[in-house]
Amino acid sequence: MRDAIQSVDPAKNDWKRRVVEFASSEVFDRLFKGGMTLVEEAAAYLDGAGRVDSRKLNRELALVYAAESMEVTTRLMQAASWLVVQRAVRDKDMKVEEAGDEKYRLSRPGPPHPVDEAVLPRELCSLMNRSRNLYERVWRLDEALYSTEIRPNDNPVMRQLDRLKSAAESGAFDPLAAWRDS
After folding, report:
1. Quick one: pLDDT band at residue 3, thresholds 50, 70, 90?
2. So what's the pLDDT on residue 84?
3. Taking a C-beta distance cutoff of 8 angstroms, is the pair 19, 96 a contact?
4. 3-state secondary structure of 176
5. Cα–Cα distance between 180 and 182 in angstroms, integer?
6. pLDDT tens, residue by residue, 115-145
7. Does the 10-151 domain belong in CATH 3.40.1000.10?
8. What does the pLDDT read at residue 6?
9. CB-based contacts of 100: which residues, under 8 Å, 6+ apart?
10. Three-class DSSP category at 118
């Protein structure tokens, strides 16, 4: 009974609106397509030309190659899983509340391993960097969309516009004064 009496804080549920709007956006469609294309590209390389490239490396570099290719695969699978969950929300195959469950969220990306990219195959290095960029972008979206915190507007342009608006409303600001005085 007590729960029924308590009012629901609308800001706490604002994340649900953000998630649904994002999942229905063109931005999401482009991100989904680009992410899945990168997954396919990585799979094709690692199963094809990448095998040939890795055989050309000495033992030590072959181990680095193997570790980095696993990192690429892991990052891409996690990002792709997140994207599929968002698509499921869009298609109403999954409730937005379920998509917000911790098991569908991404963890903060760790710092990249120090690797001398000059000694690894160029295509692997490209996949390493692009998979890292995709994961970080998806992680930032995850953080922004699913946050239940009310964050202050920390946009410096908006702060400046708010100051100008306040000054204009108070009469302390006359944008035409400098022009009239000349």
Report:
1. very low
2. 97
3. yes
4. coil
5. 6
6. 889 999 999 999 999 999 999 999 999 999 9
7. no
8. 42
9. 15, 16, 19, 146
10. helix
Which residue is listed with tokens 């120090």?
Answer: 114
Quote the pTM value: 0.74
Query: Tokens representing 111?
Result: 């710092």
- pLDDT, tens only, 83-109: 999 999 999 999 999 999 999 998 888
Q: Where are the alpha helices (DSSP H) in the chain?
A: 2-5, 14-23, 26-47, 49-55, 59-90, 96-99, 122-146, 156-170, 177-181
Tokens of residue 53, six digits: 């490239």
Q: Where are the domains of the chain?
A: 10-151, 153-182
Per-chain mean pLDDT for the chain: 86
Q: How far apart are CA 166 and CA 180, in angstroms?
A: 22
Residue with tokens 């989904």: 32
- Residue 145 CA to residue 130 CA, distance in Å, equals 22
∠ at Cα 113 (112, 117), nearest 5°? 95
Tokens coding 89: 């929300």
